């Protein structure tokens, strides 16, 4: 099995990041926006692990990646709870309808 170079990891990471940003900017559904955020975070995680493997950082990148995964899980749980509460009150998850959440 051939070794995969750093450039391939960076290319996949860039694709994940761009897909996440496009998903966040084009979706009107709150769940779709959350999925976009997760894609962006996974792109960043792939970069951290790739630079950890090919750079001189050692385990630092992998530890930071685990930290980002834990934060992403907490963010997803809190965001899904907010979306569920909004859906129970408004019967929709359209983020354009969420103007009453402003202060």
Can you walk me through this structure?
The chain is mostly helical. The chain has helices at residues 6-26, 30-54, 60-90. 75% of the residues lie in helices and 0% in strands.
Q: What fraction, in percent, of the residue positions are helical?
A: over 70%
Q: Taking Cα atoms only, what radius of gyration do you get, to the nearest Å? A: 17 Å
Topology, number of strands: 0
Task: Summarize the biggest pleated sheet.
Answer: none
The unreliable regions are none
Helix-and-strand structural type: mainly alpha
**What is the approximate shape?**
elongated
SSE string: HHH
Ends distance: 56 Å
Beta-strand content:
under 5%
* Assembly status: single chain
Mean pLDDT: 89
SS element count, helices: 3
Show the helix and strand layout.
Layout: H1 6-26, H2 30-54, H3 60-90
Helix pairs in contact: 1-2, 2-3
What labels describe this entry?
mainly alpha; 103 residues; elongated
């Amino acid at each position: 099995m051939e070794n995969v170079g750093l450039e391939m990891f960076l290319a996949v990471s860039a694709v994940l990041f761009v897909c996440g940003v496009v998903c966040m900017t084009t979706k009107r559904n709150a769940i779709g926006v959350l999925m976009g955020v997760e894609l962006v975070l996974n792109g960043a995680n792939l970069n951290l692990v790739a630079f950890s493997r090919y750079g001189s950082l050692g385990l630092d990148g992998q530890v930071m990646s685990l930290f980002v995964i834990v934060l992403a899980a907490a963010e997803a749980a809190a965001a899904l709870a907010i979306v569920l509460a909004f859906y129970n009150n408004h019967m929709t998850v359209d983020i354009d309808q969420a103007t009453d959440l402003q202060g």
